[in-house]
Structure formats: C-alpha cells, structure tokens
Amino acid sequence: MEKIKVYGRQKVNGSVQISGAKNAALPLFAATLLSDNGMCLKNVPPLADIETMTELLEKLGVVCISKQNSIYDGIVKFKTDEISSFTAPYEVVKKMRASILVLGPLLARFGRCKVSLPGGCAIGVRPIDLHLKGLEALGAKVELKDGYVHASAIDGLKGATFEFPIVTVTGTENILMAATLADGSTILKNAAREPEIVDLANCLNAMGARISGQGTSTITIEGVTSLHYAEYSILPDRIEAGTYAIAAGITRGKVDLLGGNFRELLPTFIEKMEETGMKFTDIENGLRVESCGEIVPTNISTEPFPGFPTDLQAQSMALLAVANGESEICENIWENRFMHVAEFMRMGANITINGSYAHIVGVPTLKGAPVMATDLRASFGLVLAALAAEGDTVIDRVYHLDRGYCCVTEKFAGCGVVVERF
Ligand code: EPU
After folding, report:
1. Could you tell me the domains of the chain?
2. pLDDT tens-digit profile of 264-274?
3. Residue 329: closest CA among 307, 339, 314
C-alpha cells in the first residue's frame, strides 16, 4: 500500500494549476446516460473516483474513450447508443457512493434500473431516501430488495413539484437529471445551490435540456423528449483550490491558484481565511493567496453553499491547530466527520470533540508522526499539518487521497515543496 512522506517546516511558494472538479465531473459522467447521441467532456481530472465512474458506465454499455491533455486533465468521449445493462452492481457502488448518480438518468431514459444501496461510509450514515422520494414524486415505482434499489417508470416520468426537506447535493443532481426527460415541468424547491449543480444544469442545457434557476434554491425543468450531443468543459475544483490556499496559510507562504474564478466559488471560505490572516488578491486567471504571518484563530460552521464547505473542514482544522489561540468548528453536514482529530492529536494538536463541535486550542508547533488517512479530505488535512510540523510525517492509506486529488507531488513541486510517495 502506498504511503506519502512529508518533510516538515516547508514553505509553499509558487503556483498551482487547479484541475477539473471531481464533484462536478461525477454527475456529468452520469448525465451522458441521458442521451443516445454521445458526449465529450473536457478538463476531466485524472482521479481514482473518475476511473470508478468510468468502470461503472462501461458495465452499463457506454464506450468511454479517454485522451490525456496534460498531466492534470483529460478529454473523454462517450458513446451511449448501446446501453446493455441497467444495473449498478454492489462491487462498484461500494467503492464510490456517487455511483447512485446513474439512478436518475437510467430511469429517465429507459424507464427502469437497479442500483445497489451504497451502505455506510467513514463520514456518516449517508442515506439516499431523498433521491428515492424525489423520483417517486416524478411517478417512479421504487422497491428495496436484496440490497438493491429497483426503480421503474413504465410509462415514463411525469413532471411534478418536489421540495427537499434538507439540502442534498447528489439528491438534487439525480432528480434534476431525471426531470430533463420527464413529461411536463418539474419544480425543485430547497434545491442545492452548489456550483457543481450549476455546472450540471449548464451542461444539460448545452445538450438541449430546458433548465432555469440553477444556483438558486428553486430549479425549474421543462421536460424534453431527447437530448443531443454536446461538448462541455468541467468547472475547476473549488475544494482543491481551497486546500492549496490553506497550504500557503499554514506554511506562511504564498500560492497563485490558477484556472478559475475562485473568489466566486469560495465566498465564505475566503471570508474565514481572511479572518485567520490570509490575504487574497485577484490575478489574471486566478487568485493569489498570501499568509500575513500570524495565524489568527476563528470559528467555522459548515453549511451548504454558499456557506463554508464541509469538504474543507479537515484542512481548515489543520490550520487552526497551529493558530495563536482558541477556535471552534461546528460540522453541520456529516455526523462523523471528525475522524482526523485523533490523527492530528498524534501530531501534538490540542482538540476536544463535543458532538458536532470541535474545540481547538492552537499549539505553537505540531510534530511529525506516522499517521493514517481516514477519508479523502482528512488525508490532505494530514499533509497540510505535516508541512508545518517539526520533523517528518509518513501518511498511510494514501488511496483515500487519490480519490479526489491528482498529481499532488507535481503540484507541490510547482510551489517548491517536496512530498514523496513510496
Ligand atoms: N441526506 C439524507 N438523505 C438523502 C441525501 C442526503 O438524509 O437522501 C443527508 C446526508 O446524510 C447529509 C446531508 O443530507 O447529512 C447532505 O448530504 P448530501 O446529499 O448533500 O451529500 P452528497 O450529495 O452525498 C456531496 C459531495 C460530498 C460533500 C457533500 C456536501 C459529491 C459526489 N459528493 O455528497 O463530497 O461532502 O455533497 O457538500 O458531490 C468529498 O468530495 O469529499 C465529499 C464527501
């Protein structure tokens, strides 16, 4: 099993090309199933989760032809006219919960599908009840049998109004995709407003869908009978950008994040990081992030977009662990997303958990130690802590990191930082 060695006391100074967003790419891959005319996606990040989604689409009969464009991105062409299976099997779904995203598209185009129930995962229970309720509102018949969701809509889906009782990102994406081919109009209320939802709706519109209101909490979809071929370039990854911004903050360095309008994509994150003493300046094609020296403590509460992203919580905790005073983080999205705390404490952090709150007393320095990645975002939180620590750190279970961060060694090399894999 691969590990990462991070030398301590390094300073980030350089630039990072931000790749396409994992959480935008995954629903866009699933959306290719909606049309029999194929699709071409650009700015596809080379990630393990993308390989898993490709494997799943291939099992369903999609032909995926990938071409690397640079080490950071690729182009994938999809041939979708010969779908031969309607089942997302347990072997794939257990590797990646986002596999559930094929449910809406398969049901909308073929009127039937069978998708394995994803089960639990490291950050929480993660039910899919709202995906199913939304599809039922569109007229689908849903049955849970032998660990699988069996869904059918023999006469096709029918437009309807559906209000999500809580905001769900992939839930919104699933129903949004299903509604594009439903008969009549659908109104989704309390929909997620994440930039990845906007990217999906924009891509579907480029394929001929009629969606409006994306980016607000009410999305309207006028159903169409079919979608056509489109080429679409995936949004840059705001979570990757935020992660490298913290790398500059925690090492008292400087980084240029290239490839997107990150100010728009990370509004609350930037506000909070400014409170900790980081400075953000617009530059051509990106954002410059600089540390002002001292790390000032702050309080963070994770929320759906435009609030502070839960996917930057672990990384921010690494920063606050070495702040000059006491901070608090409230995790509102996932009930079990503090697994990294025990690993930070092995490095000398002073953190106490009370339910969904983490109380962090900043220490002058962390110490390198052997640690273990517990989930995707936590794994990079450990890399960040290790960069600022005294001594070297070896991080085990790096496969978590590969699910959502590409070319970490190369990207850090562009900022003068050495991170080794072995
Ligand atoms: N929820 C339900 N029922 C549902 C769906 C969700 O109760 O049917 C609850 C969840 O248990 C959770 C909350 O609603 O407490 C929000 O979950 P959401 O559905 O929004 O999460 P998701 O769609 O499964 C996506 C990202 C996650 C990210 C969350 C929140 C993708 C592929 N995944 O997950 O990304 O943390 O939204 O922003 O888009 C990551 O990239 O590391 C990651 C975990």
Report:
1. 4-18+236-421 (3.65.10.10), 22-233 (3.65.10.10)
2. 999 999 999 99
3. 314
